[in-house]
Amino acid sequence: MRLHGMTGSGNCWKPAQMLRLLGRDFDWVEVDTNGGETRRPPFLALNPAGKVPVLELDDGTVLTESNAILLHLAEGSPWLPPPGQARTRVYQWLFFEQYSHEPYIAVARNLMAWKREAHLHRERLADCATRGAAALDVMERALAAAPFLAGDTPSVADLALFAYTHRADEGGFDLARWPAVQGWVDRVAALPGITTLPRPPAA
Fold first, then answer.
1. Which fold has domain 85-189?
2. Residues 6+ apart with CB under 8 A from 198
3. E strand segments, the chain
4. Domain boundaries, the chain
5. What is the pLDDT of residues 175-191, one digit of tens each?
6. How do residues 75-90 score in pLDDT, each as one tens digit?
7. Which of 45, 106, 120, 179 is the most buried (most CB within 10 A)?
8. Is the full-model pTM beyond 0.85?
9. What sign for the dihedral angle of Cα 1, 38, 91, 190?
């Protein structure tokens, strides 16, 4: 398998982490998304949406969208409950992550810590701060009642939300404000085989 992604991206971390947890071999292909590589014809031929991650399976099948790849890889593993209510709860968190969490916490992180363009996006970052905090509030309530997002055991829901939450400080979010979320971050980080995203290079 070949996984196309950017090392600093939480969305790309998700399938790479899942593959490592499952002990599956893959080749990593670095893609410079901030440099516009995903908008060039060779990449668009692979994924017309112009986004990473992209996973090429051994048979040549191409999979896109980080959470869809997570679900595909986790099928039949302890990271994905069998069909039923427990799996539906995992789906809820995956949709929440892409609609209510990632567009604000990940975007703030990219603009502030990686592109270093906070001065160019003050209004957008103010919106990210408000909406990102609201997403963390939702997680705080859930994690005050259970050790993991979908219940008593970790699932792909935790991987999906951990990806950007454990680096939320790079987008201006102080997790001390959300102690249940911080405790969950520590629990996920302590799971065997879990890695963390690199910090941005020094200016």
1. Glutathione S-transferase Yfyf (Class Pi); Chain A, domain 2 (1.20.1050)
2. 7, 8
3. 2-5, 27-30, 54-56, 62-64
4. 2-74, 85-189
5. 999 999 999 999 999 99
6. 999 999 999 999 999 9
7. 106
8. yes
9. positive
